[in-house]
């Protein structure tokens, strides 16, 4: 899917009091942010071990948001980060390992920001838009308004 094809996605929505351009712009911004992350990921040619580290870092951050992490878990994550950096130094050397590690940690930050932006957008959408089968999210508590998948 491309940014230009977002119009097709919204073409069958029949909502007379909704500013569709505003909704499209919000989706377009989200799509562009996700696309930038994907392009950076491909450009860096992330190895499997780095992808696993990235997934683990995201999972750790998610757990940290939900509940307070124990000092033991925090210590284990620090060890994993150190080992990942040492692996990068062995593989790429110091000059390339440092910026590469920084890029991977930036992925964590960018993905977390994109998730927060997405969640906030869905919450605002649920609060502001009328209940509609065309514009509902899975954050909606009211299950009667959900479209079956």
UniProtKB/TrEMBL annotation:
It comes from the Eukaryota. This is Uncharacterized protein. It comes from Panagrolaimus sp. JU765.
């Amino acid at each position: 899917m491309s940014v230009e094809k977002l119009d097709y996605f919204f073409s069958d929505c029949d909502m007379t009091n909704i500013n569709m351009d505003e909704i499209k712009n919000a989706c377009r911004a989200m799509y562009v942010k996700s696309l930038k992350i994907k392009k950076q990921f491909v450009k860096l040619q992330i190895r499997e071990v780095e992808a696993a580290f990235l997934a683990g870092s995201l999972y750790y951050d998610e757990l940290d948001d939900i509940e307070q992490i124990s000092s033991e878990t925090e210590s284990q994550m620090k060890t994993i980060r150190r080992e990942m950096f040492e692996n990068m130094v062995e593989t790429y050397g110091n000059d390339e390992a440092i910026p590469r590690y920084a890029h991977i940690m930036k992925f964590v930050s960018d993905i977390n920001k994109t998730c927060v932006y997405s969640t906030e957008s869905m919450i605002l959408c649920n609060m502001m838009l009328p209940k509609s089968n065309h514009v509902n999210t899975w954050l909606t508590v009211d299950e009667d308004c959900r479209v079956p998948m």
